[in-house]
Amino acid sequence: MKKLPEYNVLLPDWQGPETQFDEIDEALRPMLNGTITRVAPDDKRKPVHESASTCDSLLAVHPDAIQIGAPMGTGEVIGTGNTYILFSVGLMGLGGWMTPRGADVLGWALSAAMFLLGFYAFSFALRMSHLAPRDIPIVFNRKTREVSICMLGRLRFWRFWERVGIDKVITTSWDDLQARSYKVMQLTGEAARDTHVLRLLWGEARNPRKLEGIALIGYLGWYEDAALWRLWEHIRRYMEEGGPAIQPGETLRTSGAGKLPELPPQVIAAAGGPALSVEEVTRLAGAADAAA
Question: According to the model, what pLDDT value does residue 152 have?
Fold first, then answer.
């Protein structure tokens, strides 16, 4: 039976652990949860998929660069956040509105503890799903052959007044960037399912065998990883072969809540200037469609 085009990945299944990096700090290990399913070749001239797609992950197009989003911007975070918000409101209701009259000190203490736990959970879910940046951009600059990766700051559960934002932007070489797909177990609230993610890894400049950072890219692939590699193939063709910034008939990602974070001026300048307008990107997609 012939496979659908989106499943024609050109990478073999990966068998075994990580081999590129010998030194991995304990702080980074939790970000490498799951099992490696495929590994992109070091030689980025080699294709990884028969077809290319932005997979609804393209955030913006610059004259010399493209911005690709992360799973955080797909809208699933909002849905999950709304679920936890409702749960937290219920927890606060149990703690604040259902305290029986005449309860002793212990009863009031338990009620107050339940209300506070619900309040902090509500604050965390709200800040993460609705008050955080709409996405976490990664900028692929084919003129400088560099990749600028936005790193999200830490959101602390107990500090209800803090909002999460972009903590820093790390720029690394495109040639040194490694791509891996992983299979992880995701809890949806009703059941557990196999989910695949595409991760970017890079080593330290002085010691490439020591892992410096990890970033998620694209979206969450349910039950398979083959279609995820279409996104990497789009990026690879853009960076290596002068491929289009957007594929025929595709559009920019608009899901998520809030605004995109502002990139540092030097990153925008290196990208050739501000992002193109939606109308300009639409014309690019139409031109690519005509060329195809």
Answer: 73
pLDDT digits (tens, 9 = 90+) for 146-180: 999 988 766 666 566 566 667 788 999 999 999 99
- Phi–psi pair at 175, nearest 5 degrees: -65, -25
Q: Long-range pairs for 284-289 at CB < 8 Å and ≥24 separation? A: 284/61, 284/244, 284/245, 284/246, 285/246, 285/247, 285/248, 285/249, 285/250, 285/251, 286/248, 288/244, 288/246, 288/247, 288/248, 289/248, 289/249
Distance of alpha carbon 286 from alpha carbon 92, whole angstroms: 51
Q: What is the rounded CA–CA span in Å between residue 60 and residue 57? A: 9
Q: Which residue's structure tokens are 């604050």?
A: 123
Q: What is the DSSP letter of 113?
A: H
Beta-strand relationship, 146-152 and 35-39: unpaired
Distances (CA, A) of 86 to 25, 90, 191: 37, 6, 18
Does pLDDT of 21 surpass 70? yes
Token pair listed for 21:
């990096």
Residues facing residue 60 across a β-bridge = 67
pLDDT for position 93 = 67
Indicate the angle between helix axes 76-97 and 105-129, nearest 10 degrees.
Answer: 160
Quick count: other Cβ atoms within 10 Å of Cβ 156?
A: 12
SS3 34: coil
Beta bridge partners of 211: 203
